[in-house]
Structures are given as structure tokens and as C-alpha cells.
Amino acid sequence: MNIDLENGICPVCKAKLFTDDVAFCPDCGAPHHKKCFNNLGHCFYVDTHGTKSQWQYEKVPYPESNNKDNNDNNNYVKCPNCGYLNENNDKVCKKCGTHLKEEPKPNEPSQNPFFKANGLNPNEDIGGVNIKETASFVGYNALRYIKVFKRMTEKNSKVSWNWLGFFFTEYWYISRKMYAPAILRSILTILSSVCLRIISNDANVENILNANPILLNWFLVLSTISLGFNIITGIFGDYFYKNHAISKIKALKDESNPSEIDYMRAGGTNIFLPIVLYFGIEMLVTLILMFL
């Protein structure tokens, strides 16, 4: 006894089989509806198991031995499991349910909609690391930075313009986890703020130019240095960040085989650190003034 596999008929209920609702007998491979197999509790052909009458797939000829000509063969896909000839648009074999075409992996870089939508090659090199690794490291606003890094690599340039780096210098640095320049710029902010507040709190000063000349000079010097720091960051900040990202990514790759999560943890942005830094600067300025 056999079932009409070509039309996909369940031997229990005689209804059509669907590839996403099929249970195969572990002994003979006969397909059933999952529900029918579970309700029956065993294969429909259990009585024939181990005999010459045991259910088996029909032997299907290979394309070369079919009576179809070569042009017709181009319209069929041979099942790698049972050899049955399926239509080109079939995803699974009508005989045995085997996948005919390899399913694309959703986590493959080429399938990532971020790269596809923006015309980026995730494997393109931008200074010793690829775009996919850099995008994972950068995180927020990755598209902007990837395009800047890519242009810098192609033109061998160090120059761009970063508005956040110019106006919010120390806060931009610390949000991108570049702690050394963030601390240095914060020290300049603290010192210039202390000088300015001492000058402005002097009740006897009617004109700012008549203030303590030493403090005034220090304030002007510190303010000039701070402005220069902002301008340099505006022009070269992206280049500094590119080098920072490449250095961190390479360090991770040297230590182990990092995943996308590892890059995200090492890089990305931290929106709380700028807030902490702002209040930290204010507290330090206040404490310094209290002890002067």
C-alpha cells in the first residue's frame, strides 16, 4: 500500500499535505499530517515495517534519464535527497519535503538592510577594519560616521567638520568614550570658569577691564586655548574618532574572535556620561571657589 506523494496526500485523513505541517515516520519515512500522526500514535504503515511491503519513496529518475529534453530540464530542480524533479519556483521537494534552495542567513552582512539600503559594502576596508565592524562599534549615527570614515580613507584625508565636537567638545568626546581629550577639555573649562566667577563676583569691580589683571589674563588665555581646542575638534574630531575606533576594534580582534555585541559594548555612545560630566564640572568649580 502506498500514498500519492506527488499530490501530497496524508494516508490517515486522505487530505492534502502541506510542507509546514508534515511528520515523517522515523522508520520508513512516510509523511503524515503532524496532527494525524500524533493522534494515531504511530505510522499508518506500521504493520508493514520490516517487510518487503514496507512503505518507500517512489524511485524517481535523474534529470539526465528523464524523458524531458534539455530545455524542459531547465524548468525543474532536482531534489538532493530523493531526486524528484520539482518546479523551479518550488522551495521544498513535493516528494520528501527537503529544502531545494539554501535559505539565506538573516545575519549575513550582505542581507543586512542597513548596508543594502545605503549602498555600503560591509566587507570594505576603512583602515585595517571593515565597515561592518566599524558600524557595530560606532552604534548611534553610524551612517554619518561610516560615510566620513570612508571618504577619509579614499582621499587619504584627515579633515571634516563635526558640529557636536565644536560646540560640545568635552561632552562629545566623553559620549564617544574618548576619555583623555574629554578630561583635558574639562580641566580648561573648570579653570576658566573659576577665573570668570572670581572676577564677576568682585563687588568692587565696576568694569571688567579693571578686574584683577592676573585673573583676567589667565581667563583670556584659558578661553583662547579652549576655543582652539573646540576648533581643532571640529576639524579633526572625526579623524580622531576614526583612529580611536580602529584601534579599539583591532585590540578586540587581537584578544579573541569578537562578536557584534563585543564591538557594541566597546564602542557606541553613553548619553549619561555627558550629564555626569556637566554636573561634575559645576561641583568642582563650586568646591574650588569655596576654598579660595
Q: What's the structural blueprint in terms of helices and strands?
A:
Elements: E1 22-24, E2 31-33, H1 34-40, H2 70-73, E3 76-78, E4 85-87, H3 113-117, H4 131-138, H5 142-155, H6 163-167, H7 169-175, H8 179-201, H9 213-255, H10 260-266, H11 272-291
Antiparallel strand pairs: 1-2, 3-4
Helix pairs in contact: 4-5, 4-10, 7-8, 7-11, 8-9, 8-11
Kindly describe this structure:
This protein is mostly helical and 292 residues long. The chain has a domain at 109-291. 49% of the residues lie in helices and 4% in strands. It has helices spanning 34-40, 70-73, 113-117, 131-138, 142-155, 163-167, 169-175, 179-201, 213-255, 260-266, 272-291, and strands spanning 22-24, 31-33, 76-78, 85-87. Strand 3 and strand 4 (85-87) form a beta hairpin. It is elongated, with a radius of gyration of 35 Å.
